[in-house]
Amino acid sequence: MQGGLSASWPTLPRVNQSQPALAAAAPDAGPTVAVADAAVAAEPRRWSLSPSRAADFMTCPLLYRFRVIDKLPEAPSPAAARGTLVHAVLERLFDAPAAGRHPDAAGALLEPEWDRLVAAEPELADVFGDATERAVWLSQARAMLDRYFTLEDPTRLEPAHRELQVTAELASGLRLRGFIDRLDISAAGDVRIVDYKTGTAPREEFEARALFQMRFYALALWRERGTVPRLLQLMYLGNGEIVRYAPDEADLLATERKIEALWRAIERARDSGDWRSRRSRLCGWCAHQQLCPEFGGTPPPLPAPERAGQEASAAPASLPPDQAVRAELLHLADVTDIS
């Protein structure tokens, strides 16, 4: 992990000894990444996977089922709402001229951005018990924004893209999709993927799992445009640490194999109807404990096979359910270990 003010890219294995400062770039500079448009919308539905849903399945297959297949509603939590707000402020911050990107400017965006988010999703207004709780929550968000300025100097950056939607189709037909918080492109054309996290940096033994999302994005960019990102950067605003990693083609090929293995495990669970629950320390944050067998609950009946918009597989499984479950666990163990 590396911290400190960053005006240029750090020196890492497979990164040039002398990295140029990020150059100003127009919004359409650098690699053009596929975005949703009318032509894509008119295409037949294709099976897709996002980093969040992949993480859900790795955490607990039953959680994936609840979110993707059952589409159970989840009330917004204060932590999730704070993350959404901080991301929104950091996105808007770069609308200002370079000289106007300072902590006070970021703080001034908090209230209007929150009002905008609530207008779009009125249920967010219910995450606070009272005005005092809201004030504490806002102060925590402001502290995260202040911490961001200790990690890099936004006056010396001109992101090529913010909140960039990326899509790419693998040879198997599986479509990868997601949103990148920030894409930087240097004067030399090197690409850096940046992701803001409002939690704290994981312990070293869990860094590989944390980087899975970033490798996922890097793979999507590579498969779409043939460019391997030079640097992946996770910025943890909860404790002010940065995790940086320089991928290469071998890394991305390994990530592709593991994503395909994960997808086959999802296919088996879907076709067998066997969505195993998996108890972990993350269960305490799950909104569906009352329906989980780990807590004495019973999942609802599976909905009909055709579920519009579902991330699923068009191919039937060939293994019996008991063998499918064993294969799923083996594949899952392989996917989890991505270092």
What's the quick description here?
Helix content is 40%, strand content 12%.
What does this structure look like?
The chain has about 350 residues and is α/β, with parallel strands linked by helices. It has a domain at about 1-15 and about 45-75 and about 160-300 and about 310-339: Lambda Exonuclease, Chain A. Helices cover about 40% and strands about 10% of the residues. The protein is built from 9 helices and 6 strands; from the N terminus they run αβαααααβββαββαα. It has helices at about 40, 50-60, 60-70, 80-95, 105-120, 130-150, 205-225, 250-270, 320-335; strands spanning about 50, 160-170, 175-185, 190-195, 230-235, 240-245. Strands 1, 2, 3, 4, 5 and 6 form a 6-stranded mixed β-sheet that branches. β5 and β6 form a beta hairpin. α5 crosses α6 and α7 crosses α8 (about 250-270). The longest helix has 24 residues, at about 250-270. The chain is globular. About 30% of the residues are buried.
Protein traits:
single chain; 339 residues; alpha/beta; Lambda Exonuclease, Chain A; 6-stranded mixed beta sheet; 6 strands; disordered N terminus; disordered C terminus
Give a topology summary.
Layout: H1 38-42, E1 48-49, H2 51-59, H3 61-69, H4 78-93, H5 103-120, H6 131-151, E2 161-169, E3 175-185, E4 191-197, H7 207-225, E5 231-236, E6 241-245, H8 249-272, H9 321-336
Parallel strand pairs: 1-3, 4-5
Antiparallel strand pairs: 2-3, 3-4, 5-6
